[in-house]
Amino acid sequence: MTNEKEGDYCTICGGVRPDAIKIKTVLVDGKETGINQLEFIVAGVRDLHLENDAAVREELLRRAAAFNYIPTKKREAYGDALMQEYRAVPK
């Protein structure tokens, strides 16, 4: 019987391995905020070839929330920051 775990965790502390954290800082409401896995998130959404900005924004927020805490009151500001990053990354 194999002992398979979901994910890839540190064998010492059981947390996320430090090399698995890929945080980029963006401005959310004028405040520098770290977004984990931002490049991965943007690339994944870009691969969907979504045509409309509202769909792109919702998918960026959905995927970002999988790796990051997004306060409900700041959801729109995070959406703005994610869209800015999405547009800034070359296709």
Describe this protein's structure.
With 91 residues, the protein is an alpha+beta fold. The protein has one domain. The protein has helices at 38-47, 53-67, 75-88; strands at 23-28, 31-36. The longest helix is centred in the middle third of the chain and has 15 residues, at 53-67.
| Helical run tally | 3
Output the structural class: alpha+beta
End-to-end span in angstroms?
45 Å
What is the approximate shape? globular
Strand order of the largest sheet: 1-2
Gyration radius over CA = 15 Å
What's the helical proportion of residues?
40-55%
Q: Could you tell me the strand content as a percent range? A: 5-15%
Number of domains: 1
Stretches where pLDDT is under 50 for at least 5 consecutive residues are none
Describe the sheet with the most strands. Answer: 2 strands, antiparallel
Question: What is the average per-residue confidence, as pLDDT, rounded to a whole number?
Answer: 86
Topology, number of strands: 2
List the helices and strands and how they pair.
Elements: E1 23-28, E2 31-36, H1 38-47, H2 53-67, H3 75-88
Antiparallel strand pairs: 1-2
Helix pairs in contact: 1-2, 2-3
